[in-house]
Amino acid sequence: MELLLALPVLLPLGGAGITLLMRHYARIQLWMAILTLVAIFTVALILGYHVTQEGVLVLQIGNWTPQLGIVLVADRLTALMLVVSNFVTLSVLIYSSAQTVSENSARTPVAIYHPTYLGLVAGVSMAFLAGDLFNLYVGFELLLAASYVLLTLGGSASRIRAATTYVIVSLLSSVVFLAGVAAVYAATGTVNLAELAVRLDGLDSGTRMVLELVLLVAFAIKAAIFPLSAWLPDSYPTAPAPVTAVFAGLLTKVGIYAILRLETLLFPASQISNLLLAAAALSLIIGILGAVAQVDLKRVLSFTLVSHMGYMLFGIGMSSQLGMAATIFYVAHHITVQSTLFLAAGLIEHRGGTTNLIRLGGLAKLAPLIAILFFVPAMNLAGIPPFSGFIGKVGLIEAGVEYSTTAGWILIGASVVTSLLTLYAIAKIWNRAFWQEPGQEMFDNERPTPKVMSGATAAMIAFSLVLTVAAGPIMTYADEAAQSVLERTPYVGAVLDDEAAGDLVYRIDEEGQKVEER
């Protein structure tokens, strides 16, 4: 069973190689990529079932010891991220099969799209499964290298300009991350996450804080946490809809996943929790104010993405079991809903010829199917009951009430205001794109919506509705995942041994307080 842990990384890498060889056979490329992602999704489901029944699963590559070799680790959190992310990447790939990825396809080597896309999937899986900081860095670099290519498909001036900003910011965060890895190794003599959980406990508080801040800055850039988020609204809107959907759904969530691991496994009950909460509040408010001010659909969605990262950081900053569980649930919800909205934006652009809200109009009558495909995830993002967005936000607010501090109450207020302004931004989109009188160009650009694109978007909506209908069991699963990541001993004991887990100085209880272990 442990060997299955390697498949979410090996399968897309192997598929990328095969699809690159088949670059002259577009249909074979497509079906090879789809079959590869179906296989990975199946493996993710099996891993999810196994870790639920048996606990943390560990693969030591080459039977090297964890201190020396590459270790892949899957717990409940990892399994959930793999299942959700691979369903999204599969749906987006099917969507993209019916859309010209590049409007300049005659000049662009679009045959590299599928190999690069699978390389991105391999990087995301590697980041989720990595059991040490260095291979987490490798996973980030693999997905970032692929994203550079995907972002520039088409070679238009706007995409090259946006990609330049994206590449510079990504390289900066990678340099900071690598410097952090080097500093951690210099201070502890290891980069294995389980060993670090034990050794970092023994460092003095000043050294711990410096190491934490360096890694946190690197991950915050990747997760687009304010004030390190200015690059995102200018980078994402220029890419093709499928590429933007994957970027919005997954790339920032890999950064949040890394922050979650950092603040639970390596630096539990952090001394800078108030800094995290302040960043969460600023991300919520400033991000949504930016969304309200936009007149382009993709830019509105990009700013809401920045804003809603604050919800996830809110739960992480509290370090309580309820807050962590709500964050895990909200991450799964947001990956799905944000990706769906960008796919719906692609449908709107296909039908209207633009995403400028001033030039759109009348889509409720002209394209009622697109109206439905946008309306459902939009209401979910805004947190309208009974959708999963509402459930996740209620969980975070409840955790904030239990947190019972000034910072917690401020975050509750910011969360409520952000939710209301999100609804306002969605209402503005609906009024302009769907209800206002259409211009003549809307009739001139009349094109039927490809069934594959609308079907893939509908599948994503159905998946988001599963999160709503099965919210009880999924929230229970998230609560158990939160308990596991806060206790730390299941992870450390599985990677090293129970004796090593017993060397942990403390764990975090349900209220986010340190409990001495020895």
What would a concise description of this structure say?
The chain has 518 residues and is mainly α. Helix content is 74%, strand content 3%. Helix 5 (133-151) packs antiparallel against helix 10 (241-266), helix 12 packs parallel to helix 16 (388-403) and helix 15 runs antiparallel to helix 17.
Beta strand count: 4
Derived from helix and strand composition plus strand pairing, the structural class reads mainly alpha
Measured as a percent range, the helix fraction is: over 70%
Mean pLDDT: 86
Question: Could you give the order of strands across the largest sheet?
Answer: 1-2
Unreliable spans are: 102-107
Q: Which range does the strand content fall in?
A: under 5%
Gap between N and C termini, in Å?
A: 34 Å
Biggest pleated sheet: 2 strands, antiparallel
- What's the gyration radius in Å? 22 Å
Order of helices and strands: HHEEHHHHHHHHHHHHHHHHHHHHEE
> Which word captures the global form?
globular
Question: Count of helical segments?
Answer: 22
Describe this protein's structure:
GO terms for molecular function: NADH dehydrogenase (ubiquinone) activity. This protein has 518 residues and is an all-alpha fold. Helix content is 74%, strand content 3%. The chain has 22 helices and 4 strands. The longest helix has 32 residues, at 157-188. It is globular and about 70 Å long.
